[in-house]
Amino acid sequence: MEQVGYGEHIADTVRNMPYESAIQTEDIAQQLAEMFSLPYEQAKTLTNVKLKRMADKGEIERLQKGMYCQVKQTVFGKATPSIDEVVKKTLTEQSGAKIGYESGAFLLNKLGLTTLIPRDIEITTNRYGARLPEDCHIRLRKPPSAVTGDNWKYLQFIDMVSELPNAHIDAEKPELLLAGYAQRQKLDGLILIFTARRHYPTKVLLPLIDLLMEVEDEFTSR
């Protein structure tokens, strides 16, 4: 079934992928179809066969149906990247487009709002119904609106604000940390308000406005 050139192309594509990237049958099949002008289903069959052979030889590791990861030989033996990191990339990016973002207690800890270290990583993603590999410490959340490269930072920020009342926050001035984050991400206050008004309930919109006003007062009073 594997014709000359197809298998080499697939193998080269896999070898040139970053270590922590997910090796997904669908993505590689799409590239193969475009490169050789093949029908997608034929390209997918060829890809499935080649990736299985590479996994059988120990060149890559199968995580679940249609998803593999890189294998690296070290002085201690075979090593593979973190399953969580590999899967997280598939949930936050697809063909170079943004489709999800980190959220929940994991993100609050990452930004210094809480010292609580959660066991699971929460990802808000368009692929919220995806089946995850076993032993994967990721929880999926449905976004309030389809995540895009233009809106994900705004949705992520509003999510954080909405979680503050019920989260374990031990930072002295969490609003200033959030303000600093908003500045680094170059978030526009009006777009934040319009986004919250369109996609979130009033109980989220009002605290967001209060936060923005409080931050504005803090900075103008200095």
| Count, helices | 9
How many domain regions? 2
Percentage of residues in strands: 15-25%
Q: List the helices and strands in order.
A: HEHHEEEEHEEEHEEHHHH
> Order of strands across the biggest sheet?
1-3-2
Structural class by secondary-structure content: alpha+beta
Mean pLDDT, as a whole number? 89
What are the low-pLDDT stretches, counting only 5+ consecutive residues below 50?
none
Total number of β-strand segments? 10
InterPro entries: DUF6088 (IPR045738)
Pfam family, one: DUF6088
Protein name: Transcriptional regulator, AbiEi antitoxin, Type IV TA system
Overall description:
This protein is of the alpha+beta class and 222 residues long. Strand 6 and strand 7 form a beta hairpin. It has helices at 6-15, 25-36, 40-56, 83-92, 104-110, 152-163, 174-184, 189-199, 202-220; strands at residues 23-24, 60-64, 67-70, 72-74, 77-79, 93-94, 97-98, 100-103, 121-125, 138-141. It contains nine helices and ten strands. The model has no long low-confidence stretch (mean pLDDT 89). The protein folds into two domains: 6-79, Orthogonal Bundle (Arc Repressor Mutant, subunit A), CATH 1.10.10; 83-220, no CATH class. The chain is elongated, with a radius of gyration of 21 Å. The strands form four sheets. Strands 1-3-2 form a three-stranded antiparallel beta sheet. It has a three-stranded mixed beta sheet with strand order 8-9-10. A two-stranded antiparallel sheet has the order 4-5. Helix 2 (25-36) packs across helix 3 (40-56).
